[in-house]
Every structure is written in C-alpha cells, then in structure tokens.
C-alpha cells in the first residue's frame, strides 16, 4: 500500500542572520527534510526579521518558509532533527490549505 502524503508548510527561524551563512543553513534544512523522505516543493526566503521576544539571546532571525509533501512517519524524524539542531531557533509545521 502506498504511503499517503499531505501538503505542509514549514516555517523555520534560523539563528544566523548573515547572508553568507544563510545558503549553508538553507541547504542543511532541505537536507534534513530530504533525508526524512520529504518532497520540497517551494522555498520562500522572508529575510532577517526582528523577533517579538528574545529566543536564546537572539533578537533577530532569518525566516524561511518551505512548502513540502510528506507522510506521517516523516514528521517525527524531521521534528527530532530540527529540535536538536542549534542553527534552528524555532520552527512550526502546519498543514497547507
């Protein structure tokens, strides 16, 4: 039986706000997704933005929105890796409409 995939949006706030580090961080993030069987459809760079509240002594973060497709099993592995990665300040995964 084929795995049923659903469309999601991943919003990630990256620690490094310098443009030179962003390409490396974006590649690292998409590598984590692909390693867990996620199909990346679209990446949107929202740039460096101020945070409402300080997170790990940071007042700014680089926002990245990724539209992707994945099955339920891929979510657990992906979330585990994002939680332990020090370059990701915060992330939110939501079902896309």
Instruction: Report how far apart the termini are.
Output: 25 Å
Q: Helix/strand/pairing class, anyone? A: alpha+beta
Radius of gyration: 13 Å
The chain-level mean pLDDT equals 90
Record field, number of beta strands: 4
What order do the SSEs take from the amino end to the carboxyl end, as H and E?
Answer: EHEEHE
Shape: elongated
Q: Enumerate the strands of the largest sheet in spatial order, edge to edge or round the barrel.
A: 2-3-1-4
Strand content: over 45%
Helix content: 25-40%
> Segments where pLDDT lies below 50 for 5+ residues?
none
How many distinct helices? 2
Biggest sheet: strands, sense, closure?
A: 4 strands, antiparallel
Task: Give your account of this protein's structure.
With 97 residues, this protein is α+β, with helices and mostly antiparallel strands. The protein has a 4-stranded antiparallel sheet with strand order 2-3-1-4. Helix 1 packs antiparallel against helix 2. The protein is elongated.
